[in-house]
Amino acid sequence: MPAFGFGVSATTLISQAIGAKNINLAKVYIIQMIKGAILFTSLSVIAFLVVPEKIIRLLTDNEEVVKLGGKYLFIMAFVQIPLNLYGLFIGALRGMRNVGIPIVISVLGLWCIRIPLILIATYYFEFSVISSWLIIGIDILFRFILSAYFLKKKMNTNLKY
């Protein structure tokens, strides 16, 4: 949810700054949103690392689900900041009128990393569901890196329209 919220904010603020032809304001917005996303997300990272099973216990009392869900939250703690920054970055790219780049990044992550690797891990190697969560983390990191690269590249081109 925070990734979506930061993405929508980035789209709105960046498009307003670009519409006003103020690239410096767009850069200030991005820097401030990055700081906010990291600060806000750090709270969930700490909770996911320190008390993952207690968080799952709020949703169920089934011990098997609590243990497995706790492992999931622990693994996802390591990709929460990249996930939220990815959402922010693709929102900023959309605000710069680059709707194609976010779509390409999502397609590459989903169809070139997530689905094939999970299928291989599950059906060929017969790994547990935990391997799927690790692969999802790899996909998130891939999307984050690609979106950061394209955002930086676009910001350095002075956004000529």
Describe the secondary structure blueprint for this structure.
Blueprint: H1 2-19, H2 23-50, H3 52-57, H4 63-77, H5 80-95, H6 100-124, H7 129-155
Q: What would your notes on this structure say?
A:
With 161 residues, this protein is mainly alpha-helical. It has one domain. Helices cover 84% and strands 0% of the residues. The protein is built from seven helices and no strands. The model has no long low-confidence stretch (mean pLDDT 94).
Structural class: mainly alpha
Strand content: under 5%
Mind summarizing the main beta sheet? Answer: none
Distance between the termini: 32 Å
Average pLDDT for all residues: 94
**What is the 3D form?**
flat
Secondary-structure element series:
HHHHHHH
What is the number of independent domains?
A: 1
Specify the helix fraction band: over 70%
Number of strands: 0
Give a short synopsis of this structure:
This protein is an all-alpha fold. The chain is 84% helix and 0% strand.
List keywords for this structure.
84% helix; mainly alpha; single chain; 7 helices; 161 residues
